[in-house]
Write a structure and sequence with these properties.
- It holds the Pfam family Guanylate_cyc.
- InterPro entries: A/G_cyclase, Nucleotide_cyclase.
- It comes from Roseovarius phycicola.
- This is Adenylate/guanylate cyclase domain-containing protein.
- By secondary structure, the chain is of the alpha+beta class.
- Helices cover about 45% and strands about 30% of the residues.
- It is built from 12 helices and 13 strands.
- The protein has helices at about 5-15, 35-40, 50, 55-65, 110-145, 150-155, 180-185, 185-205, 235-255, 285-300, 310-315, 335; strands at about 15-20, 25-30, 70-80, 80-90, 100-105, 165-175, 210-215, 220-225, 260-275, 280-285, 305, 320, 330.
- The strands form 2 sheets. Strands 6, 7, 8, 9, 10, 11, 12 and 13 form an 8-stranded mixed sheet that branches. Strands 2-1-5-4-3 form a 5-stranded antiparallel sheet.
- Helix 8 (about 185-205) crosses helix 9 (about 235-255).
- The termini are far apart.
Length: about 350
């Protein structure tokens, strides 16, 4: 057996498609069995561009003249399945022969794996984005329930240790004749009104380092000095209370539903922590909170009430008037002096 015959048998036996392409007319002078299995029975009139319509024949000719090599890929249907092959053209070493050796390797599985990896990467990226979005939503909800410092402690340790904050100031607000409002309006209207008002209170309080701790119906409780110390905690809640009442007064001028509030403020110490196991919430406790609630019950319409100690701290900015019975101080002329 001649060397040429042995080479031909080897080319027919290997698992890659091999063909010899006449570069003058792009016809085939040889095709092994694998090549024929992939691209059909030999046809003396078949041309390279007929098997590979997307192949740029001019580029092929140019590459064969310059480097003598060119690689590309092609996909085609083979028995209802899309097959992808890597095409490698190498010009024959004999300069007198205008022939290129075409070697085709089946890379379908590689492409399928690459596609699976791409799909998996996209799925991981999409899931990561979804987890990040859900995490941000949870964080936002938790920050509505507790101060950021408490949230950071909860996120790190899983608990928020009870802490004594001293001194701080507490503001307690509620609405006069709230029960009458409930009977006169639909529940949805009341909720919408409270949401509008409490959102405005939150924005105002943030301007003065006064943070809402909780709401319970018409009861709105805020504190300054928790969890971050604030030397001007009394002025913070006084300023916030003044703006709360001004906001309500202006709102009542243009809204059909009128809201009349009263506010109690007090300074002292509180204990802050997260309470509850499943429906947990950050809250503050202590006699100062009780004092603010008590003063609130003594306040007149659209005024703040406090004790003499608190009134003395803010006296330079806010006017104060002792009550007739001497049990508390009413801060009546807030709008003129704030």
């Amino acid at each position: 057996m001649s060397i040429e015959a042995i080479n031909e048998q080897l080319l027919r036996a290997i698992g890659v498609g091999v063909a010899l392409v006449d570069l003058s007319d792009l016809s085939f002078s040889f095709r092994n069995d694998t090549f024929n299995e992939w691209f059909g029975d030999p046809d003396p009139t078949a041309r390279l561009t007929e098997l590979f319509p997307d192949l740029d024949s001019q580029t092929l000719q140019s590459e064969m003249l310059d480097d003598g090599r060119m690689t590309t890929e092609a996909s085609f249907k083979l028995r209802r399945r899309t097959m992808t092959v890597a095409l490698e053209f190498s010009r024959a070493q004999n300069a007198h022969e205008n022939i290129a050796v075409l070697v085709c390797q089946n890379i379908t599985r590689i492409k399928e794996l690459e596609s699976m990896i791409d799909s998996y990467s996209m799925m991981v990226e999409r899931n990561t984005h979804e987890i990040k979005r859900e995490k941000e939503q949870v964080e936002k909800l938790l920050l509505n329930m507790m101060p950021r410092a408490a949230y950071e402690e909860y996120k790190t340790f899983g608990v928020v240790a009870p802490r004594l904050f001293d001194p701080v100031s507490v503001l307690a607000l509620d609405f006069i004749q709230f029960d009458a409002q409930l009977t006169q309006h639909e529940p949805g209207v009341i909720v919408s009104e409270l949401n509008d008002i409490y959102s405005a209170f939150d924005r105002i309080g943030a301007q003065f380092a006064c943070q809402r701790i909780r709401t319970n119906g018409d009861s709105y409780v805020a504190v300054s000095g928790v969890p971050d110390p604030n030397q001007d905690h009394a002025m913070a809640v006084a300023n916030s209370g003044v703006r709360f009442l001004r906001y309500l007064a202006r709102r009542n001028d243009s809204h059909p539903i009128k809201w009349v509030a009263r506010i109690g403020v007090a300074s002292g110490s509180v204990i802050g922590s997260v309470v509850g196991i499943q429906n947990y919430i950050y809250d503050v406790f202590g006699p100062t909170v009780g004092a603010a609630l008590h003063h609130r019950s003594l306040a007149d319409e659209m005024t703040m009430a406090t004790d003499a100690t608190f009134a003395e701290i803010v006296a330079e900015k806010f006017g104060a008037l002792p009550s007739d019975d001497g049990t508390h101080v009413l801060m009546r002329d807030l709008a003129e002096n704030a």
